[in-house]
Amino acid sequence: MTASFDFTVAIPTYNGATRLPKLLEKLQAQQHTENISWEILVVDNNSTDNTAQVIKSYQANWQYSYPLKYVFEAKQGAAYARKRLVTEASGKLIGFLDDDNYPLSNWVAEAYAFAQKTPKAGAYGSQIHPDWEVEPSEDFKRRIAPFLAITERGNMPLLYQPKKKLLPPSAGLVVRRQAWLDSVPQKTILTGRIPGNMLTSEDLEVLCYIQKAGWEIWYNPSMEIYHKIPNFRLQRDYLIPFFQGIGLSRYVTRMVNTKYYIKPLIFLCYLVNDLRKIILHFLKYRGNFKDNLVAACEMQLFLSSLFSPLYLWKNGYFNNDIK
Question: Has this prediction a pTM greater than 0.90?
Fold first, then answer.
């Protein structure tokens, strides 16, 4: 497909019928886009609610110069939804917003402007503020919130350095479509969380490929969004499997940019470091993680990171082909 728009707002959603209206209202209120040709593309990732009907009702009464498009993707998983978005998008730039991400009124304009100023940027992330349903403790905010796609790294643009192994989340991420098409292989490993499987970090795997190809990855604080975080995402029943999924996926994101001939050495280094973290964490909290949710989440992350290679190999993820 030849890109015919400057920008595509790409929205992957699963059962987002109650969340999408607020996001669409935020997009209808975008300002300073008069000189930008853009579109909104929603990919329904096999929803079981009335997501399709919600979008169709908006389309029937759509009075804006930028189109609202809808596509259904039956294959469950964020990786499949995002790949479909890239395939269907007509924009040279693709800005990903989850259905619980609510951008400020200048988000599209700022996203487009940053690409013009930073031509070597293959992808760049937003400043993401939390919109807590229930305010968590300061300790939770400091140690756990960054894993919930909260990204507040100051008010100056920041270039992510490959050696630091730090990359932005997919929420509020803008990608040059050509950088994705040129850098990301058809066969990737991680699929994203699906019912019954919390394995995640599929977005980081994609960014690793883009960075490996020589594109720059940036943090752009002038693109601001608010991430709605309901109370259930602060509970043990959600967080422990969530951190387990992050940890179990780590072998992939650790190794994507590693040269094949030093992978055995890097693997051993990570193995020793993960064991060190587990032992020190256990001693620090004396093995009592029942009453300290933050410490329990961190221990789950360390343990799952240790077992990540074995889990991925045993469950056939290294042979997974995203088609």
Answer: yes
